[in-house]
Specification:
This protein is of the alpha/beta class. Helices cover 38% and strands 26% of the residues. It is globular. One of its GO terms (molecular function) is ATP binding.
Length: 257
């Protein structure tokens, strides 16, 4: 087990009382898997990702990377957000080097490492460009290169393609699959987009809402992962099963509110 979440609960104190956001979350992710957690608003997806990233701590339970307990942020986890979070005054090379600079790597080493990952995401020719000179998909590829430059054990992605138009999103899906195949990277991504989750991941955790709980774990076994698969019945079956599940639990959550 590479990433392990055991009996994780997360509560917040509010003026109305104790708000349970996540309840008894259990997940196991092996090295090299592409996992998606899918749920509607209120299912605690972003809160869960923050626990894994170490940006927040569970009320109870634990998150482990290998045998190491997560107690805060660390270079073993790279993070990619929905919004590109690039520094507008830095060029692409400088943005990609930024995390390495914070880690104290010598200038020559961080330049070489960042340059390598810019080549991995296909942006070497844009190393001197500013973010404002890039398209949305290119900005997100820079953000991915920056996350990869620290050579994390797990790449965490918080709805990374939610702000992109449909054509750019589809191109980024193909890019992520190619990156995954080439690097054997362990990826954990949260999304509300059911088709995106089915297309990208080899396993899906479906989350119910209020509080967020794992309602089902689905193994996704597609014969191919190109845009053609989206026209085939096997893809539609996975999509419909997941949508029906989320719709059912969404209605339950509304009726309980």
């Amino acid at each position: 087990m590479y990433l392990q979440i055991n009996s994780l609960h997360k509560h917040f104190q509010t003026k109305q009382g104790n708000l349970v956001v996540l309840k008894n979350i259990n997940m196991t992710i092996e090295q090299g898997e592409f996992i998606c957690a899918v749920g509607a608003s209120g299912s605690g997806k972003s809160t869960l990702l923050r626990q894994i990233a170490g940006l927040d701590l569970p009320t109870s339970g634990e998150v482990k990377i290998g045998e190491k307990l997560v107690t805060g942020p660390g270079p073993d986890r790279g993070m990619v957000f929905q919004h590109y979070t690039l520094y507008p005054w830095m060029n692409v090379q400088e943005n990609t080097e930024f995390g390495l600079k914070l880690q104290g790597l010598p200038k020559k080493e961080r330049r070489e490492q960042a340059s390598y990952y810019l080549s991995v995401v296909g942006l070497s020719k844009f190393a001197k460009s500013l973010p404002k000179e890039l398209s949305g998909g290119m900005k997100q590829r820079v953000a991915i290169a920056r996350a990869l430059a620290s050579e994390p054990k797990v790449l965490l992605m918080d709805e990374p393609f939610g702000a992109l138009d449909i054509h750019t999103k589809e191109a980024m899906h193909e890019f992520m699959l190619d990156l995954w195949y080439r690097t054997n990277l362990t990826i954990f991504m949260i999304t509300h987009d059911v088709e995106e989750a089915v297309f990208l991941s080899n396993r899906i955790y479906a989350l119910g809402a209020r509080p967020g709980t794992v309602r089902k774990e689905m193994l996704i076994d597609l014969p191919e992962r190109t845009h053609h698969i989206k026209r085939q019945s096997v893809f539609h079956d996975y999509r419909d099963e997941l949508m029906d599940l989320l719709r059912k639990h969404g209605k339950e959550a509304l009726s309980a509110a």
